[in-house]
């Protein structure tokens, strides 16, 4: 740049700065008193020398030329740059101070850098707006002004000065406005609302300031800022967010929609003094001794039986912020904890304590709560800290707790004795069952003898022998044969009628295991005798457990579950009765259901063995009672 040319034409450059980039050549000639044609040639020379830049409708003095003018001003003894147009003034950067009414609190650093370079290269395109001169000058004796609009440009100029791109005495043309505080706030807000990057909370603070300074309604604010009343109301509601929520909203971690939803779901504010919060904190940390995430209010900690009688705690109980639990035999402890209301008081006024998830964070939060209480009421704070002796596990149990502990011990002892008696009764029942099974096996042997001797017995002798055998199984005679359905099949349909033995009460004889074998064989013997057959043999020789079982039976495995048990029944039908596989399976289900009709038992019942022998007995019993259901003769 030609510095000498710039010095020679300092008056022209000052006039361009004063009038602004839009100045016309004729006006410039008038302001400087120069011939218009000569002035045109001078401007062309300065453009070639890099002193000014020209664009259609714009004439701008470059930054380096501004430094030359500032130096000329200093050399000529001028406190400030060139004469400004009416209503305007030239100010150095240090003469302008930030006002309290600018709603914008956050500035993008990268955008500021871009704006700084633009101002350095092309000059200041839009003037700053300031209020009238302050009452007192600064330390240099220069007048100062409060900024109304243009804080980003002011910050960009300050950054350029700090980085050496502009001189300290860079002249800034400002528009001077004589406005009140409320007008200042409105002007600053309107200027920033035109920008899309103003944060929601910054808008909310600005709207709130307008309401408080002017006494405006939300409708009046909406009218002045050209927004809907609903928009203003929703922005103002954001001021009710917690500090944590406000921080998240500013950082973009929470949307405005999420913030409004959080406000809608937030419980009503809970009033609590600093001492109340200290007592609540002591009770809550006693119930939640280890800091962790997502602690809740409902936990209760152990306490002395007289804890609820302490005045500070009793006051919170009466206001529904603390509750106690009386000891029970299952939980023999006096317990105390915060209610939902008490927890909300902590969450609203001692958020750091509730959210602390480390020991150090909790200690710091607890110290803050303690300090606040001490500052508010020293005596009450000291009394509150003394409550620690009533919280936690007491050294001695209260009489109520000790009585409940003794009662629980007595109940446990009685329960153990009852269980011992129950096990003894089970053992007796099992012994009786084993004895009955042994008797039934003996009866089976005697039935075989009766089958061999029966043809030689007359009716009376046969009846006596027959009744003796049945009664030895535990049934009460006299007995008779009746034609009945033995029960329902698995589809809940009546099974075909057949002859069954009925006791003196008219009830059909039912049994399981060896008793089942014995009853069915006696029934067969009775039918054969009634038909006058010479051979009253009761049918297949059914194998029962003994030390003389064949090797083939020893090798057979017992069923392990209900499915295998049914398969064993079906296998008996196939192997010993010649039944086809599909029919064998169907008959197995029917025989299984018939066998346990009225027993009210399920597979695995301890009254039955559920072994291979039981499965064979069930199949053989059905084959003897319902031979007509078999599609083939017995093998």
């Amino acid at each position: 740049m030609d510095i000498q040319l710039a010095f020679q034409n300092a008056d022209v450059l000052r006039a361009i700065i004063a009038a602004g980039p839009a100045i016309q050549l004729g006006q410039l000639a008038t302001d400087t008193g120069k011939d218009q044609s000569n002035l045109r040639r001078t401007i062309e020379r300065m453009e070639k020398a890099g002193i000014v830049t020209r664009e259609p409708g714009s004439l701008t003095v470059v930054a380096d030329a501004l430094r030359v003018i500032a130096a000329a001003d200093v050399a000529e003894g001028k406190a400030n740059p060139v004469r400004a147009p009416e209503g305007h003034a030239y100010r150095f950067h240090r003469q302008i101070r930030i006002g309290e009414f600018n709603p914008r609190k956050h500035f993008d650093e990268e955008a500021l850098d871009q704006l700084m370079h633009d101002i350095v290269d092309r000059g200041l395109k839009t003037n700053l707006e300031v209020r009238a001169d302050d009452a007192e000058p600064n330390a240099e004796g220069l007048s100062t002004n409060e900024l109304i609009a243009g804080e980003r440009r002011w910050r960009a100029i300050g950054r350029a000065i700090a980085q050496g791109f502009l001189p300290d005495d860079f002249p800034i043309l400002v528009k001077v406005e004589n406005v009140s505080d409320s007008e200042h706030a409105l002007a600053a807000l309107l200027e920033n609302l035109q920008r899309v990057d103003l944060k929601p909370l910054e808008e909310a603070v600005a709207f709130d300031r307008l309401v408080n300074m002017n006494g405006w309604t939300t409708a009046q604010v909406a009218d002045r800022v050209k927004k809907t009343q609903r928009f203003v109301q929703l922005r103002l509601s954001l001021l009710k967010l917690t500090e944590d929520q406000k921080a998240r909203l500013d950082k973009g971690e929470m949307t405005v929609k999420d913030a409004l939803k959080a406000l809608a779901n937030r419980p009503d504010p809970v009033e609590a003094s600093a001492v109340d919060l200290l007592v609540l904190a002591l009770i809550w940390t006693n119930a939640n001794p280890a800091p962790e995430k997502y602690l809740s209010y409902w936990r209760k900690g152990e306490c002395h039986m007289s804890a609820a009688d302490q005045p500070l705690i009793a006051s919170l109980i009466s206001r529904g912020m603390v509750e106690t639990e009386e000891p029970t035999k299952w939980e023999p402890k006096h317990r105390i904890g915060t209610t939902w209301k008490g927890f909300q008081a902590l969450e609203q006024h001692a958020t750091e304590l509730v959210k602390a998830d480390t020991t150090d964070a909790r200690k710091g939060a607890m110290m803050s709560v303690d300090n606040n209480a001490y500052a508010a009421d020293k005596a009450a704070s000291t009394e509150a800290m003394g409550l620690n002796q009533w919280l936690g596990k007491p050294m001695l149990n209260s009489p109520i707790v000790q009585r409940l502990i003794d009662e629980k011990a007595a109940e446990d002892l009685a329960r153990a004795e009852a269980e011992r008696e129950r096990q003894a009764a089970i053992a007796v029942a099992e012994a009786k069952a084993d004895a009955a099974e042994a008797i039934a096996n003996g009866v089976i042997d005697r039935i075989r003898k009766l089958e061999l001797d029966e043809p030689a017995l007359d009716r009376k002798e046969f009846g006596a022998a027959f009744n003796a055998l049945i009664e030895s199984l535990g049934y009460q005679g006299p007995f008779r044969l009746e034609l009945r359905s033995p029960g329902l099949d698995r589809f809940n349909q009546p099974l075909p009628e057949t002859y069954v033995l009925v006791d003196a009460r008219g009830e059909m004889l039912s049994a399981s295991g060896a008793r089942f074998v014995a009853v069915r064989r006696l029934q067969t013997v009775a039918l054969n005798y009634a038909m006058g057959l010479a051979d009253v043999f009761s049918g297949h020789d059914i194998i029962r457990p003994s030390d003389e079982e064949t090797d083939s039976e020893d090798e057979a495995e017992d069923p392990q579950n209900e499915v295998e048990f049914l398969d064993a029944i079906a296998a008996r039908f196939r192997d010993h009765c010649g039944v086809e596989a599909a029919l064998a399976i169907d008959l197995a289900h029917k025989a299984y259901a018939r066998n346990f009709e009225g027993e009210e038992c399920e597979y695995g019942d301890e009254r039955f063995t559920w072994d291979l022998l039981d499965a064979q007995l069930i199949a053989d019993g059905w084959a003897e009672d319902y031979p007509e259901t078999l599609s083939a003769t017995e093998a």
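The radius of gyration is 53 Å. The chain is about 55% helix and 10% strand.
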